Amino acid sequence: EEPVLLAELKPGRPQRYDWKSSCETWSVAFSPDGSWFAWSQGHCVVKLIPWPLEEAELCKTSERKSRGSKAEVRSRGGAKEKTLECGQIVWGLAFSAWPAAEARETDPACAVGLPCLILATGLNDGQIKVWEVQTGHLLFSLLGHQDVVRDLSFAPNGSLILVSASRDKTLRVWDLSRDGRGVLRRQVQVLSGHVQWVYCCSISPDCRMLCSAAGEKSALLWSMRSYTLIRRLEGHQSSVVSCDFSPDSALLVTASYDACVIMWDPYTGEQLRTLRHVPLHSALDYSSEVHTSSLRSVCFSPEGLYLATVADDRLLRIWALEMRSPVAFAPMTNGLCCTYFPHGGFIATGTRDGHVQFWTAPRVLSSLKHLCRKALRTFLTTYQVLALPIPRKLKEFLTYRTF
């Protein structure tokens, strides 16, 4: 079943043509509970939209023209769409829950006794601005990077550990919780090892590992416990620009300008599969001199059975875990990023003209076998599985070697 375009959101202000404003959507994000959606729509602005929206409201939102409409969209809960004026081009976005005690210390406007939601924004000048989503208030700024903050990733366990990736060739680890004296801990570690701009960072769902991708042919895998380099993942022929872990942390995918996605076992460093982006000539009108399949983004579906990729050949591709060819395509223009809705069912993509598109995605009922594998791999490493006194074929299945 081919992805169907559900809606398209467009910037709500006239396009400016100076280099400082930028109009690209370099990042889109859903909050972990799926209650909010954010996108960097260009013009130094982030849009926050409460989710879910009624279908009629979503359609109305999608029809906005770039003439500066100030209409607000309401969700079922009464929350309102917000515009965050960041003052700089926005490159990276990441949501996290903000414990009630932390929220009241930092922003008294938060509802008493209730956890708040925060959004971190990575900016062109190296700053990271952290916002309270429900009110749209700026909580604080994190300073340290010397160049563009290209990507952000919060630890999924709610520990308020934030990792930032920058064009200054470093990753920085921040602790946004408070110590016993109520002081915000802020910067924890600087990770150095890349020699080019760092494009992407991803923390594994079990919070054991961190993957980073830069303008290099290898991705780096780091320990989130010791903040030391575990290994280099070498296999691509051009710059690695995107990475993502499977929901059980047992798989890692990296996407590169070489038009390939490589699937890795992060524990052993073994390459399990390569997905090659072969151009569909009927869908293209580029010059033959342009490498049209250069990848921009890759992400796992919430249940871990599908991948989505966006490439320069104007296609959104959906891949099934067991197959080497895409199971579905959708034509899109100038795609830059993609992410799944946390509960599945559709995908959001960002484009170079500042738009966001929402696409249907395959809905699947996971088999009992996959659910058992996912449950086991959530707490067992590859080495621990291989040490179990079970048949070889079962080990191969649990370690994703039966593709």
TrEMBL record:
Domain SOCS box: 367-403
Protein name per Swiss-Prot or TrEMBL: WSB2 protein
WD repeats: 119-141, 142-177, 191-232, 233-274, 288-329
Keyword presence, Repeat: yes
One GO-annotated biological process of the protein: intracellular signal transduction
Organism this protein belongs to: Pampusana beccarii
Pfam families membership: SOCS_box, WD40
UniProt keywords, alphabetically: Repeat, Ubl conjugation pathway, WD repeat
Pathway the protein acts in: Protein modification; protein ubiquitination
InterPro entries: SOCS_box, SOCS_box-like_dom_sf, WD40/YVTN_repeat-like_dom_sf, WD40_PAC1, WD40_repeat_CS, WD40_repeat_dom_sf, WD40_rpt, WSB_SOCS-box_domain
Keyword Repeat: yes
